[in-house]
Amino acid sequence: MSEIVNAFLLVFVGLFPIVNPLGSAPIFLSLTANCLTEERNRLSWRIALNGFCLLFGSMFFGSAILEFFGITVPVVRVAGGLVVTAMGWKILNEDDGAPEREAARAAETPPKSRDSFYPLTLPLTVGPGSISVAITIGSHRPRGESLEHTVMLAVAAVAGLLAVAATIYGAYRFAAPLARLLGQGGINVLVRLSAFILMCIGIEIVWSGIRALATGLGHADAG
Fold it and tell me: Prior bond to 123 cis, omega within 30?
C-alpha cells in the first residue's frame, strides 16, 4: 500500500510545482478577458483535460516517442524553454492598455473550446519543463513484483495526474473571483509578476537543457 501512495505522491509532488497552475491563473485570466463566465469555465475544463492528456502521453510514451524521432530530452528543454521565454517576454512588455485592446478585438470572435490547446495548455500550463519531468518520472517509475502490482502502481500514477489536472481546473475556474477580490490594479501586478516568473522559468529550462547537452558532449569526448 505504501508503494502505491508513494507512486501517487511521486507524480503529484513532482509535477505540481512545475505546472504551477496558481501562478499561471492570472495570465489565463488576462488572455481570456473577453470571455463570458460560461466560456471561461469550459476553457478551464478543456485545458485541464488537455493538460492531463499531455502529461499522460509524456509519462507513459514520451521516452519511446523521443527515441523514435532521435530527439533527446535536453533538446526538448531548449526548444520549449525558448517558447516559454518568448511568451513571458511578450506579456511582460505589453502596455497597460493591451489587454483591453485585445479583449475588444477578440470580442468579435471569442475563443472557442477547440482553441484551448495553444497557448493556454501548451506552453502556458503544461510547458516543456512539465513534459520533461513527466518523461523522466515515466522512465524511472517503479515496477511491481507482479502484473497486478504493476497495474496498481500505474493506476496510482494516473491518479496523481488526475490530481494535477484537478488543481489546474480549480485554479483557472476560480481565477475570476480572485480577480474581483484583487481589483484591476492587483491583477495587473499579478500578471506582470507571473509573466516575469514565466520568462525566468523559460530561461532556466533553456539553461538546464544546454547544461545537459554540454554534459553529454563531455561524456562523448571522454569516451
Answer: yes
| Alpha-helix residue ranges (DSSP H) falling in 107-174 | 128-140, 147-173
Helix (H) or strand (E) holding 185, with range, is helix 175-222
The burial of 187, by beta-carbon neighbours within 10 Å (0-12 exposed, 13-18 middle, 19 or more buried), is given as buried
Tens-place pLDDT, residues 29-87 = 888 888 888 999 999 999 999 999 999 999 999 888 888 988 887 887 788 778 778 87
Q: Measured between alpha carbons, how far is 222 from 108 in angstroms, rounded to an integer?
A: 60
Q: How far is Cα 137 from Cα 140, in angstroms, rounded to an integer?
A: 5
Q: Say which DSSP state 95 is in.
A: -
